[in-house]
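Following up on my earlier thread - several people asked me to post the actual chain instead of describing it. Fair enough. Here it is, all 157 residues.
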Amino acid sequence: MSARHLYSLEAEELNYGFLAVKAKAVLSKSLNDEALTDSDHEVLQNAAKFLSNISEGARLVETKELHGHKSDDRLAALSVALDPLSGLQSISEDEDIADFIGQLSAELGTVSTRQASHSPESKDKLKLAADIFGGIYNYLNSSLSEKHRVLTNSFDG
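Reply from S.P.:
Thanks for posting it. Predicted structure:
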């Protein structure tokens, strides 16, 4: 793997980490019925797209159709989310993860286009999405910290 590719992956992980932090904060605002700004709506749209990529990545793995120019983004999103998703108690083993994440993505897409009070079902989905984004942030923070510790230690001689 080339150094350029490694830096590209790390930059992508940083972008996912920033999105996770922003999405969790905006979801918290929304769940507390606080007014969302245009920027908040944009964050939710990006978060919905990210969840959609995770869902589509899970579907690609399930169907073993892993070729194509768009599969890389979807598989990268899935790889970032696998560890946090495995820790969620809300997902049963026999639940279709692609459908589950797809439903969360759709709910975020709905919230990103309007400001409204949430039904109990909507609130549950938004809380799950916030938990997923919190887990993704924690996973990436830990992963990137470990990578940098290894790099720093290798140069300490």
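DSSP finds five helices and no strands in the chain. That should answer part of your original question.
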